[in-house]
Amino acid sequence: MSEFPETIPRMRASLLASAVLASALLLPASPALPASPAGTCSGVPSDFDGDSRADLAAAAPYATVGGHARAGSVTVLYGAHAEKRLTQDSPGVPGEAETGDAFGSALAAGDFDGDHCADLAVGVSEEDRSRPGADGDGAVQLFHGSADGLRAGKMIDAGDLGGRRGPDRFGAALAAADLDGDGDDELVIGVPGLGGGGVGLYGLRGRGPRIIGQDGGWVGQSAKETDQFGAVLAVGDFDGDGRDEIAVGAPADTISKRNGQGSVTVLDVHRRRATLLTQDSPGIAGLGEPWDSFGAALATGDFNADGRDDLAIGVPGEGLTDDQRAMDYGDGTVDVVYGSRAGLRTATSQAWSQRSLKGEPRYFDRFGAALAAGDLNGDGDDELIVGAPGENAVQVLAGSRSGGLTRRNNVLITGRGGDFGAALATVPDRGLVVAAPGDGRLTLLRGDTRKGAYPGVRPAAARTFATAAGDALFGYALTGASSAR
User: Fold this and answer.
1) Which residues are the signal sequence here (predicted)?
2) Hey, what domains does the chain have and what are their CATH numbers?
3) For position 10, what pLDDT does the model report?
4) Is the predicted pLDDT of residue 466 greater than 80, yes or no?
5) Residues 183-190: what's their mean pLDDT?
6) Sign of CA dihedral 460, 79, 15, 142
7) Helix/strand/coil (H, E, C) string of the chain?
8) Separation between Cα atoms, residue 273 and residue 100, nearest integer Å
């Protein structure tokens, strides 16, 4: 299967300079913390340069680098400084840019070395192809934060986790998680081409490096080559014990002979426990059907402010209208499962679609193809942002302390073409970033402080703050609060 969406054409141009400096991200209404002294870091999520302001990284995995098509690049938009472009040809980065590497196929921000500086992990999922058209072995490039910004670190691959290198697309998905509760982040790595798929753990203290397979050990699921277990990752502390669990999407998982129904498995690494979620799980609305792609997008947030993370699951292939046909993209829905002392409880889950919200469902909308969460209105509970790139739209639902997400005051934000809404990120104290990778454009919607069941963003406040050549897939992956703890 192709590693990038068929709706976005193959890339042929190099990444251009951003149209606006990253200082456009700053929110005057939200004063920043005092800048950290030289040589120290702030501990602010996604603050790569220690100035106490969250930064943003945006990937362009099809950017041309040094004449190599689709080699890939990542642009770091520092909160108070000029941008910086990272590639495999950057100083200190091992290896070199090569055609088709897709540097930036995934991103994650977290404190991986415990120095309170945010670090950046960059997936290079198509590194080392055995032949043209084959999947790559894959690798992950680490960059370490400092008072001077990101500096190149180690490149890791399956061999560093005790595995065998092969065409497994190591690094196709990434997440930062505190799996052992020690305050430092571990790096969670998707390996969707490993048999039915797998998840790599890097940096977990007291335990050797390893890859958890879909059909191995305590996970114990049946695995098919096309399941894509590990193609999507999210992390959250769903039971409130101070340790994160991992939600693993397998959007092409075949269950009960229904091809592409999709699944999500929650891995509790500490307890060595795996919980399978599908649309056939008790309490989850809907019915598992072929090509629903349950788990094609994931996001975690505390939507009811109870101190435990909740999980939003995208089902962009779900058909709601009469025009739906087999293997069409889908109208799309989103299921939300709430955390509790015992972990995620499907009995209190919610289902959302444009039938119950502003907007009109259509069979090509792909509502739920991208998800993000963050406190956009500053009242202590998170909002849920849902991308519908087939409609070039984003839906924002407000969180509340009485019941979690609510349809009250939900807002539909539409943009120009280029799959507006295909990637999303919330940036602390700045607002919502929406990518249109097909056009190479990032749009910022600044947060609006207003307590209660309000989405925290206004369509009229949307502004383009960074652009690039559309063929580079600029904005295909973003860092933000959803991927940094």
Assistant:
1) 1-34
2) 122-138+164-445 (2.130.10.130)
3) 29
4) yes
5) 94
6) negative
7) CCCCCCCCCCCCCCCCCCCCCHHHHCCCCCCCCCCCCCCCCCCCCCCCCCCCCCCEEEEECCCCECCECCCCEEEEECCCCCCEEECCCCCCCCCCCCCCCCEEEEEEEECCCCCCCCEEEEEECCCCECCCCCCECEEEEEEECCCCCCEEEEEECHHHHCCCCCCCCECCEEEEECCCCCCCCEEEEEECCCCCEEEEEECCCCCCCEEEECCCCCCCCCCCCCCCECCEEEEECCCCCCCCEEEEEECCCCECCECCCEEEEEEECCCCEEEEECCCCCCCCCCCCCCCCECCEEEEECCCCCCCCEEEEEECCCCCCCCCCCCCCCCCEEEEEECCCCCCEEEEEEEECCCCCCCCCCCCCCCCCEEEEECCCCCCCCEEEEEEHHHCEEEEEECCCCCCCEEEEEEEEECCCCCCCCEEEEECCCEEEEEECCCCEEEEEECCCCCCCCCCCCHHHCEEEEECCHHHCCCCCECCCCCCC
8) 37
Is residue 185 within 8 A of residue 225, CB to CB? The reply is no
Residue 79 pLDDT level (bands cut at 50, 70, 90): confident
